[in-house]
Amino acid sequence: MSATYFVRVHSEYYNPLQPPERRILREIVELGHEIGLHYEPRFYSDEGLDLLDAIDADRALLAGIPGVGPVSALSAHQPLLSPPDFATIAGRGLTEVYIHPEFRAMRYYSDSGMNWREKTLAEAVETESRCQFLIHPDFWNDTATDWFSNLDARRDAVVAELDATVEAEKRMLRDYLARRDQRDAEFGKLLGKS
Amino acid sequence: MEFSFGDYADAVTRALARFDHVCAARDYLALPEPDRRQARVLFLRHDCERDLTKALTLARIEH
Prior knowledge:
The structure holds two protein chains of two kinds.
Chain A: E1 4-7, H1 19-30, E2 34-39, H2 41-46, H3 51-63, E3 73-76, H4 86-92, E4 95-96, H5 101-104, E5 107-110, H6 121-127, E6 130-135, H7 147-178, H8 180-190
Parallel strand pairs in A: 1-2, 2-3, 3-4, 5-6
Chain B: H1 5-18, E1 21-23, H2 25-29, H3 33-38, E2 41-48, H4 52-62
Parallel strand pairs in B: 1-2
Helix pairs in contact in B: 1-4
């Protein structure tokens, strides 16, 4: 079994270029899955970027993470709020899974808005023979919870991660200040100063 | 069906038994033409909006 994991480059909640997220992406690939780009038309528009140039740049950023490999599949982030120019993307021959003929020919289901569209995954698995199923990992937990509690939990996790980073930097700073003269002398030697 | 990892694991286990291919976009497009047309296929995609940690959890379940 394999799946395509579409990743944002400009998410407010994670940064795929930082070490912890890079390790996650590598592990997802090692498990046999594919990394695609969850491209962000509204961000590109707000930044005055050309759609295709921005998609290529973001694909290159993800593909540049060692172990991730080529990034050829695309899915649009919030296509209803900020509709991308699908015709332009199709004209480039990119694998945009909303519009690529091979995937468009399949029945489409999703858990968007934490609300099953037509069928749950369990129902689709029992009744369909060919379909595209969109799952948002954000919504899933050890035990089911509502969307707002889910967002609160994500905020708490992000704050906890930042707290740990700040505490680690404080420890480093205390260590540096305690040995400042020695460190400054070492740095002077490194620069060739006596 | 609830949004719990346990329910997800049950669903993908049943999917493996029912579909010929439960696969990524790349792997579906790499199938020979007859397979693409005739096989029972579930293209499974995940849009990672806010949390890659949960994406990894699902990836491990699928593995």
